[in-house]
Every structure is written in structure tokens, then in C-alpha cells.
Design brief:
heterodimer; A: about 230 residues; alpha/beta; 4-stranded antiparallel β-sheet; B: about 375 residues; alpha+beta; 6-stranded mixed beta barrel; two-stranded antiparallel ribbon; 12 helices; 13 strands
Chain lengths: ~230, ~375
């Protein structure tokens, strides 16, 4: 049976000639549907590379990446289609489009192409507790509110895989807790495979599994972390 | 168009500023176009209204001064009239003079000498055609604006020939920026040779004309006609270049217009280059979420198109209004819908070309940079 996400012995190198660094070193990761997995580690350990490879933003030098049963080794055009149909991204706090209101932020991915199983943007905003600010633009929202809108935007296409990059980086403790709780709830509710890259140890207790990334290698986290 | 409209509304001040620049360029385009058409009309409208297909000038005469320098023997008219494919041939004379009316109005005139009753003898809308009286003149309607009236007597300076205004033509008939007066060929020949009324004209005076006016079918062989008649033919359009100042004026204005088109493309291109650079992080997010390159390009180009079209339409509107006001002044200005439409379309097309080059940078935006952290 296919997993929500499978990275199978994935290696990614940057640079050329003698100046080569290994960002991902034979990384294997399987995330089941309805499961939320956290990846922690110091800066430069390869966490962002892991998200980039898992989301089809870059192609690994070796190994396989599967989202459900779909291989991400195709052309950029194929990968763009898979991204819009199967993958949701939650970026760091300020990655909303400045000109769009909250409801339009959520509606935006639906304009990229046809979506058979999309969700209603207003209902989704209500689900993340933002329906009362549907007409506000990013500069009129707090960091936590922007992050909630970002989560609603990532969920509107009913993705199979949700990739979350430092969701609490710009939030206070209370807001962080709310955002991570929301992610966990949606992951279980929608049966998505969710990968959260974070520095925030408060996030970890909401996750089903925790991995630690060191020098491009992915290891199960020490009990103190998990 | 989802993002296009929202971006335009959100960044309306920025787009309004750019739109104002494009609108100002469009206004300038309309004014230049009007001035260009006005100058052309002022220079050659009388030639354009001649019912001829070509004019046969003196062989080897300077092409850019043929109307003032050409002297053709009257016998060439018959040579041309007898050629296959030539339906009409008539003598044509052209001389610029200063004159004064009995109403004390000073006026410059381009005297066109024609044989009364020939195919180039025009039909006036007021008064009568040239008749048997050799001292008659039929003038352009624009001469009325200068103060000439039907029935006035116009005296040609230095020569002293008196011509009675018997007819007024419909609309503008000008040549070399002065009003045209049609007079009988014989009278024109006397004026050209400086023969005062009652004096004996030189023997050759009545044998010389400026050119043979020819109306022919398309298959007429002009080169063979020139060979036999000892002339040098120019099509009617080619003959415009022989009008005083015509080539210099039109080429100057064309050069200004070309520069204006180039500047507009550069300005629009520069604006969208800056805009695209500013939007790079946003575009990376769009692409990371799965927006195709085509989607992002279409969005950016739609923005350019909306901006250019709206600004151009506004600018053309203001330009036409300003042009209408200018048209009532003595300035040679004429609003030609065709020329304005072409100018507006060129502005949009070249602006789009500039924008297209700028937004092609979008293709190079790496969606990976969306993961790059704070913007």
C-alpha cells in the first residue's frame, strides 16, 4: 500500500567540482496518511532541502520520491501539476500575496487549474477561525492570523501531502500552540501526510513522530526531543 | 485575470503613475499624428485631389524640386494622350506667387495652370468653373479663411495680372502650405514668364508647362511613355516628395514618432522590469504552489495589456479633445481616425513587447526561493 509520502534513499548534492556539499545523504522517510511528522535540526542540516525534494521543488541526484503513488521525477511542468493537485505548502509567516484578501489567498490555488475535490474558501477560513477577517489583506493581519490563512490556502485543494516550513517562527507561545494544534487536527481530519520542519520544540508534542536531521542524514530523534 | 485585477486595484497608485506616463505618451502621439497629417494636408492636399495617376516632368529634373524646376514642352501632352492605356493627358502648370485682393488681403497662392474643360479643371462648389475669360481664378475653400471672397479681384504681385475669383472649391486644396488657385493655362504661362497684362510674352512662353497630367490604366507603360515624350514620370504619390519641404517635414515628424514609440516601449519595459523584480518572491510562492509558468506570464502580460490599453484610450481621448481645439487655430493640424488608431495600436503593441521582454524574467524565478525564509 502506498504511503502519503515516501522518500527512498534520496541523495541531494549542491555545488560542482570540488565544492560539493551533500544536503541529503541517502534519506529515507515514509509518512502515512493521517500522520504528522516533525523534522528538527540545526540550520544548514538539510531540513529545507528535505521539504524541497518532498514537494517536487527540486529533483534529487538519486533515490525516489513518491506522493501517494505518483513519482516526482518528471519534468518541472509535471511536478508543477503534482504540486497544485496533491501538495500543500505552508511557508514561513510572510509568504502571503500582499494584494489579496484572506479569502482570495485561499481561493488563489483554485485558479491555477481544475480541482475536482476542492473546498469552499470561506468555509475553510471559518474552520481556521478567520472568517471574520476574510476581507483583510496580509498587512492588516497579525502573524498568527497570517499563518492561519496560509494553512487554509494550503488545504483548499485537499492535498495528499502537506509540507510546513517553520510554522511558528514568528509567533508567540500561545499562537504557536494554536497553529500547531490546527495543523494536527487537519492532518488527522483530512488523512494527509504532513511534514513539519521546525526549530520549535513546543511543536513536537503534537506530532506523531519526530526526526532529527544532522549533516544531511535523517535519524529518529533522541527521546529527550521526542 | 484573478491576480491581474486584484494587483491593479491594490497597487493602483503605482499603476496610475505608470498609466499617466503612457497616457501622456499617447497624447503626444495623437498631437504628433495630427500635426503630421495636418502638415501633409497643408503640403499636398491639392495634389492629392488631382484626378491623375502620374505626372510627367522634364527628364532629369531634380526629383525633390520637380514642380518648381520642371519645364516640359507642350507637345509632350499629345505624345502621352496617344499612348495605350492612357485615358487622359492634359497640360499642367505650377507656380507660387504673392498676391493681394481688392479687399487689401495679402495672400500667397499656388497657381495651377489648367486648360479649361480638361480633366484636371476642377468643379467648384460655389460659383462657376473657369470659362473663356482668361482672367478668372477658382480658389481653395481655405482661401476664404484668409479673407478672399467670391467676386474679389486678386492682383498678382510684380506682374500685375488681375484675376477675378469666379469659383470656390470644396475643402482644403493647398500646395506647399499655400492655397491653390486654378487659372487658365495661357494666363499661367504669361504669369510664369513675368509678362504683364498687355505686354508681349516671349515666344516660348505658350509652349512650356510644368508637367503633363496623366490619367492611365494600371497597365500603362510609364517608362516607354517617358522615352517617347522625353519626360520623367512620377506617380501622384511620388510627386508629393517634389512639393516644397514635404520630405523634410514628414521625415522629421516620422523620426520623432519612431523615437516616441521606442521610448514608450523602453519606459513600459523598464516599469515592468522593476515590477517583476519586486514581485520575484511572490512569483516564487505562486510557482511553488503549482502555478504554471504560463499562468504567471499570462497574469503579468494581462496587467500590461490592461494598463496600456486603458492609458492609451484615455490618452487618445484627451489628445483628440486637445487636437479638436488646435484644429480651430491656423496651425496645420488634422485629426485622422486611421492614423490615430494606428498610433494607439502601435503604442500598445510596442509597450507589450517591452513588457514581454521584462516579464520573461519570470521564467527564471526558482520556486525553491519560496522556502528561503522571510521576504
Amino acid at each position: 500500500m502506498s504511503a502519503g509520502l515516501l522518500l527512498d534513499e534520496v541523495t541531494l548534492r549542491h555545488g560542482d567540482g570540488e565544492d560539493i556539499t551533500t544536503a541529503l545523504d541517502e534519506v529515507t522517510l515514509r509518512v502515512e496518511e493521517g500522520e504528522i511528522v516533525a523534522v528538527v535540526g540545526p540550520s544548514g542540516a538539510g531540513k529545507s532541502s528535505l521539504l524541497a525534494v518532498a514537494g517536487g521543488l527540486t529533483v534529487p541526484d538519486s533515490g525516489r520520491v513518491l506522493v501517494g503513488d505518483v513519482d516526482l521525477s518528471g519534468t518541472e511542468r509535471d511536478r508543477a501539476r503534482i504540486r497544485r493537485e496533491r501538495i500543500g505548502y505552508v511557508f514561513q509567516s510572510n509568504n502571503l500575496i500582499p494584494s489579496l484578501t484572506a479569502v482570495d489567498q485561499v481561493r488563489l490555488p483554485l485558479t491555477f487549474g481544475r480541482h475536482d475535490a476542492s473546498r469552499d474558501p470561506l468555509e475553510l477560513l471559518a474552520e481556521v477561525g478567520m472568517e471574520h477577517k476574510a476581507g483583510r489583506r496580509p498587512h492588516e493581519l497579525s502573524g498568527g492570523e497570517r499563518q492561519r490563512v496560509g494553512i487554509a490556502r494550503a488545504l483548499v485543494t485537499r492535498p495528499r501531502l502537506l509540507l510546513v516550513d517553520e510554522p511558528t517562527a514568528a509567533l508567540d507561545r500561545q499562537r504557536s500552540h494554536e497553529v500547531v494544534e490546527l495543523l494536527a487536527k487537519e492532518t488527522h481530519h483530512l488523512r494527509m501526510a504532513t511534514v513539519v520542519v521546525t526549530h520549535d520544540h513546543d511543536v513536537l508534542r503534537h506530532c506523531d513522530r519526530v526526526y532529527e536531521m544532522v549533516d544531511g542524514r535523517l535519524n529518529p530523534a533522541q527521546p529527550a526531543l521526542a | 485575470m484573478f491576480l491581474t485585477i486584484r494587483e491593479l486595484v491594490f497597487a493602483r497608485s503605482r499603476f496610475a503613475l505608470m498609466g499617466t506616463v503612457v497616457a501622456l505618451i499617447a497624447i503626444l502621439m495623437v498631437l504628433l499624428s495630427g500635426l503630421s497629417v495636418g502638415l501633409v494636408d497643408d503640403g499636398v492636399s491639392g495634389l492629392k485631389k488631382l484626378p491623375v495617376t502620374s505626372l510627367a516632368f522634364e527628364r532629369d529634373v531634380a526629383a525633390d524640386a520637380a514642380f518648381s524646376r520642371s519645364v516640359v514642352d507642350l507637345g509632350a501632352v499629345d505624345e502621352w494622350a496617344e499612348r495605350d492605356g492612357v485615358t487622359d493627358a492634359a497640360p499642367y502648370g505650377n507656380t507660387l506667387v504673392n498676391a493681394k485682393t481688392n479687399g487689401d488681403v495679402d495672400i500667397d497662392l499656388a497657381l495651377f495652370g489648367v486648360q479649361p474643360g480638361s480633366f484636371i479643371d476642377p468643379e467648384p462648389t460655389q460659383g462657376t468653373r473657369l470659362g473663356s475669360n482668361p482672367n478668372e481664378i477658382v480658389v481653395s475653400a481655405t482661401a476664404l479663411d484668409a479673407g478672399v471672397r467670391l467676386g474679389d479681384v486678386v492682383t498678382v504681385d510684380r506682374v500685375g495680372t488681375e484675376l477675378t475669383v469666379v469659383g470656390v472649391l470644396d475643402g482644403q486644396h493647398t500646395y506647399g502650405h499655400v492655397d491653390i488657385g486654378y487659372i487658365p493655362l495661357r494666363t499661367w504661362q504669361e504669369i510664369r514668364t513675368g509678362t504683364a497684362p498687355g505686354a508681349q510674352a516671349p515666344a516660348h512662353a505658350y509652349e512650356e508647362i510644368t508637367a503633363v497630367a496623366v490619367r492611365s490604366a494600371s497597365e500603362a507603360d510609364l517608362a516607354a511613355g517617358d522615352h517617347d515624350a522625353g519626360t520623367m514620370s512620377m506617380t501622384l504619390e511620388e510627386s508629393f516628395g517634389a512639393s516644397p519641404g514635404y520630405t523634410a517635414e514628414t521625415s522629421t515628424l516620422q523620426m520623432i514618432q519612431v523615437f516616441l514609440y521606442a521610448i514608450s516601449a523602453l519606459v513600459v519595459g523598464a516599469f515592468f522590469t522593476v515590477l517583476t523584480i519586486q514581485r520575484k518572491p511572490e512569483i516564487a510562492v505562486l510557482r511553488a504552489m503549482g502555478a504554471s509558468t504560463r499562468y504567471v506570464l499570462r497574469d503579468s502580460l494581462a496587467q500590461s495589456l490592461v494598463l496600456l490599453t486603458t492609458s492609451t484610450v484615455l490618452g487618445v481621448g484627451v489628445g483628440v479633445a486637445a487636437g479638436a481645439a488646435i484644429s480651430s487655430t491656423p496651425m496645420p493640424f488634422s485629426l485622422d481616425p486611421g492614423s490615430i488608431a494606428v498610433a494607439g495600436l502601435l503604442l500598445v503593441v510596442l509597450g507589450m513587447a517591452g513588457a514581454a521582454i521584462a516579464v520573461l524574467r519570470i521564467v527564471k524565478v526558482d520556486p525553491l526561493t519560496a522556502l528561503g525564509g522571510n521576504r
